[in-house]
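Mods, move this if it's the wrong board.
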Amino acid sequence: MKKPLSGAFSAFLLAGAVALAGALPASAASAAPSKGATAPAKTPAVTVDFAGTVALSDCSGSLVRMPNSAAGDPALVLTNGHCLETGMPNPGEVITDQPSSRTFTLLNSSGGRLGTLRATKVVYSTMTDTDVTFYQLNTSYAAIKSRYGISPLTMSTTHPVAGAAIDVVSGFWKKIYSCNVDGFVYRLKEGDWTWKDSLRYTPACNTIGGTSGSPVVDTATGQLVAINNTGNENGESCTVDNPCEVDENGNVTVRQGINYAEETYFIPSCFAAGNRLDLTLPDCVLPQP
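Not the wrong board. Structure tokens:
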């Protein structure tokens, strides 16, 4: 996992900010993309910068809105499940409506500090099937826009496509990684956790520790299509910090130096009007407590 630079497990630590090595030959048969068509190469239509991103104490994140969010709704911040301040959720664990006073540094377009945002609660957090934490803030999108001039990133409701140009925007490092969607992974397994239909980057996105929770932005639309979360560091198979790809037939592929994100297109279907989480909505597929 692209875990915080400090934490309870030494396995998640990285020595400085050294980038991961490029892709090495896989140790098993390649896993075919599970979804999504191949996108033709396009010139970026949107200039991606740091506006709307946040820095956590040890991770990255972003101020986000659902397609139906209103200006007066309580604002949401998105980061990884494994960035939760109370510790990583166990496999099968889902956390909802947990009080939180966590703070986030809001960044401007160039990565400069604008101010501090504060959570009131963890809306949702899990590392089962995906790797996400949503925080609700004590302020609205309209208030943030009025005070700081910053708008949230909009979460796409469309499955990303192979070949699409993307930017991974790290508020922690104030660095943008640019690459393409290389393909999709039926199951991505790391330690005791398993994620479904993960997004694999081309080698140029050599993300490092501290980039956990970074928004993955489609440069054609400017919308958030995934959340950065892990990469295989030293070629081990299916261990912590060394995720492996598992296809529909159980074949395992290891790609040392390659990094991954978890898709987010299905998440807006779990939020009702007013940014209210509702896991009972008919199209919601997020794991339930």
